[in-house]
Write a structure and sequence with these properties.
This protein is mainly α. It has one domain. The protein contains 15 helices and no strands. Helix 1 packs antiparallel against helix 10, helix 9 packs parallel to helix 14 and helix 9 runs antiparallel to helix 15.
Length: 454
């Protein structure tokens, strides 16, 4: 197999990545739209959105991580031309994802009352719980969507999911307008209206995605399972659960940061939500590049083309850096302009703008660590990356964030300095991990070829 130039890998990765990037952007824009439109109701409703999304994002991202076990296995099977294997992965993934949706939903429903014991502003908690319970209902349609989306992406069909996600996001904004403010005869439900809008749009999104995949000419798998394969089920769980925890460790660090912000008051929490929303947009976009890297690395690994596997991974790292550099520049230039979309309170805007400066510094690290996780996932390497994220965010980052914010009296900025440290450590270690493993496989591949030609 010939070694393809980096520019070819860049182009191929981009073709797969850009629809996923836009799809991921659509997912996060749901939360952004909720925050912007709820922000017009005042600081406390906006703080409630922050608190609810901090909790819900944990289970949502864990669910996304579990569903991602489908993609590298389907991509590897596709690289080998094994359609039967890709079908088996899809069907087992469907069962795993539905079970995950029910269990995660029950976890949120049973644990929502814990918010009263986290020392948050009482009125914010009262607003948070009903909204949180409503959006939790969207887990089932969302995981249905993810199942079919990840299968299609494993086969490199990414564009339709993009169109469906963006269309659903437009529907969410429309329903927000109708249900938050009570327009065109609809009841004015305030914050809860945003929750119902999210639920409705995700139900529609799931229905359309299922219809697309099941009617596609390349879909010949069906959902009927004659018997479960224990070995495949265990393999997918060993891949999906650590991936879910990778997301939980990172997103959980930001959720824990939101709780610490709540200790500093509603204004700090609202400012945190605004800056976090902006950072989450760029993060979800770069996870689209990471997902494309999973597909490309997994596909090349399935073909046993290790040199091009390495180049596919490095092209994704380069794309991630380019995207996050642009994001960092935007944060610096728009540090006061961007928060004004959310709220018109000067103190909150000023604080959010200063947090965006910190966010600008960790954009490059966030991009590298996200692509690193995606590339390693394509190699089915998840255990060590999971440990790396655990140590970076929870052993080092959060304790330092607490120390800087409270004993050192740096307040909200101290919390974000800790997050900056976490992302930087994770980025360095994950990039090093990909370089080490891919180089090791390259040497093994070269040795095998020498023996075969001898």
């Amino acid at each position: 197999m010939s070694l393809q130039p980096l520019s070819t890998h860049f182009k191929t990765t981009f073709i797969i990545a850009y629809p996923i990037v836009l799809s991921q952007l659509g997912h996060i824009t749901v939360g952004v739209a909720d925050s912007v439109m709820v922000g017009e109701l005042g600081t406390e409703p906006l703080a409630a959105v922050s608190l609810a999304n901090s909790i819900f994002s944990l289970v949502l991202m864990f669910g996304i991580g579990v569903s991602m076990a489908i993609t590298p296995l389907v991509a590897a099977a596709d690289g080998k031309g094994d359609k039967q294997k890709s079908g088996e992965v899809f069907r087992h993934g469907f069962i795993i994802n539905m079970c995950a949706a029910f269990l995660l939903g029950l976890l949120v429903l049973s644990g929502s009352s814990v918010l009263y014991y986290l020392d948050q502003p009482e009125q914010v908690v009262r607003l948070t719980i009903p909204y949180l319970l409503i959006i939790t209902l969207s887990l089932i349609p969302f995981m249905l969507f993810q199942t079919f989306k990840q299968y299609a992406e494993g086969l490199s069909f990414t564009r339709t999911a993009m169109f469906i996600t963006l269309s659903a996001n437009l529907l969410n904004i429309a329903f927000n307008y109708l249900l938050i403010y009570g327009k065109l005869g609809f009841p004015a439900l305030g914050l809860n209206g945003a929750g119902w809008a999210t639920l409705i749009s995700r139900v529609i999104m799931a229905i359309v995605m299922i219809a697309y995949v099941t009617r596609a000419s390349w879909f010949q798998q069906g959902l009927r399972i004659k018997h479960l394969q224990k070995k495949l089920m265990v393999r997918m769980l060993k891949l999906g659960i650590p991936t879910g925890f990778q997301y939980v460790f990172e997103v959980g660090a930001f959720s824990c940061a939101a709780i610490m912000m709540g200790w500093l008051g509603a204004q700090a929490l609202a400012a945190h939500q605004i800056a976090l929303n902006m950072a989450a947009v760029s993060y979800m976009m770069v996870t689209g590049i990471a997902a494309a890297s999973t597909v490309r690395v997994g596909n090349q690994l399935g073909k046993q083309d290790i040199p091009n596997m390495r180049r596919a991974g490095f092209s994704a790292f380069l794309m991630g850096l380019m995207l996050m550099t642009a994001s960092a520049i935007l944060f610096v230039v728009g540090k006061h302009f961007l928060p004004s979309f959310y709220i018109d309170e000067p103190d909150v805007i000023e604080l959010a703008g200063s947090l965006l400066i910190v966010a600008a510094f960790f954009q490059l690290s966030d991009g590298v660590q996200a692509v690193g996780l995606g590339s390693l996932r394509g190699m089915a390497d998840v255990k060590i990356p999971t440990i790396i994220t655990l140590v970076a965010y929870w052993v080092l980052g959060l304790p330092i964030a607490y120390w800087l914010a409270f004993p050192m009296n740096l307040g909200p900025h101290g919390i974000w300095y800790g997050l900056l440290l976490s992302l930087t450590i994770a980025a360095i270690l994950l990039f090093a991990r990909f370089h080490y493993l891919s180089k090791k496989l390259l040497k093994q591949s070269s040795s095998v070829k020498k023996v075969q030609t001898a």
